[in-house]
Amino acid sequence: MPPLAGFTVGITAARRAEELATMLERRGATVQHGPALRIVALADDADLEVRTRELVARPPDITVATTGIGYRGWIEAADGWGLGEELLRALGSSELLARGPKARGAIRASGLVDAWSPESESTAEVLEHLLDEGVEGRRIAVQLHGEPLPDVVEALEMAGAEVVTVPVYRWAPPLDIAPLDRLIDTTLAGGIDIMSFTSAPAAAGLLSRAEERGVREELLAALRGPVLALCVGPVTAAPLEDLDIPTVQPKRSRLGAMVRTCEAVAPSRARRLPVAGHELELRGHAVLVDGKLCPLPPTPMALLQALAKRPGRVVSRAELLAAQPGGAGDEHAVENAIGRLRAALGVPDLVQTVVRRGYRLALEPGHGGHCLDVPGEER
Questions:
Q1: Nearest Cα residue to 364 out of 281, 274, 294
Q2: 56 with 119, same domain?
Q3: How far apart (Å, rounded) are the C-alpha atoms in residues 60 and 173?
Q4: Angstrom distance (rounded) from CA 248 to CA 250
Q5: How far apart are CA 292 and CA 347, in angstroms?
Q6: Tell me, what CATH number does 125's domain have?
Q7: Which of 59, 105, 258, 341 sits at a 20 to 30 Å CA gap from 237?
Q8: Distance (Å, rounded) from C-alpha 176 to C-alpha 197?
Q9: Do 252 and 279 fall into the same domain?
Q10: Of 27, 1, 352, 128, the residue nearest 9 (C-alpha)
Q11: Are the C-beta atoms of residues 121 and 100 closer than 8 Å to each other?
């Protein structure tokens, strides 16, 4: 059985989304893609790679990180060119300055240590600090994000420094917002088991769109509860953890490692119950009966989940009706859905009818709940 069979994974990535989806699907997952952003490359994006390679070959004396998201974007871009570790070594050999706490957090999350950061979070104070320290003859890399900072560059060059500006990616909302909205709707409806994030801006984009739609708190509740937040690394996880959202992440910030972490963690979230001489395993939005995968339509799955919350105990028709998606219909609709559930499971005795009371999972005695004979019971 593929390790992710029965689980639905949401993908918020813009870059390498198809690659991630392919890896997840090979492991049995169902994937829903709703890119939370798009990457807008600056006109001199090719120059970014050239400058990065120059800094790797000839590390700077001082590196200034102006924003957390920009610094992270730079490291991620370098990683995409196979230069990530080399760039971190080059930056680590320099004196690292962070303009504010977010940039400082990004530096530390990358495994490096900043030497200084202004209390004001002001670029002007960073410039003043550098000029007071003396920059003549020193090579300074200034990470840019969204603004060129010509005054800072000019002042440093006039003081005798060699300045290498590092323009990074800009992030923008997706041109087609519909897939992201569908992903949010599916999550709020309980249809996503795992939400994957490969960048901090993607997490921010998802929450920003939820806020625009007035469902931010509901989405946060889902990510803090039944939905597993899967992140590629600590930099990506940081903004989610700041919101008290638990995350899982690999030791190495790589897509492959993230997928392996997913396949290791997801099955442990499945619920296993011994029912009527069979092993029932609820995983995401499918069920395994004695190791055989049985995909279920939304309504039968919702009823099975309601029954599994109280295994061995009777669940009334009214409760099962309320558990159906939309909660519409009558008790006859519940009977039909139970019939479809039994047919899909292939073992009718797993779900017992308790006359005039409702239904229950035939949990084996000694495994929690109650599965005692009830007068008037029929199967």
A1: 274
A2: yes
A3: 34
A4: 7
A5: 12
A6: 3.40.50.10090
A7: 59
A8: 19
A9: no
A10: 27
A11: yes
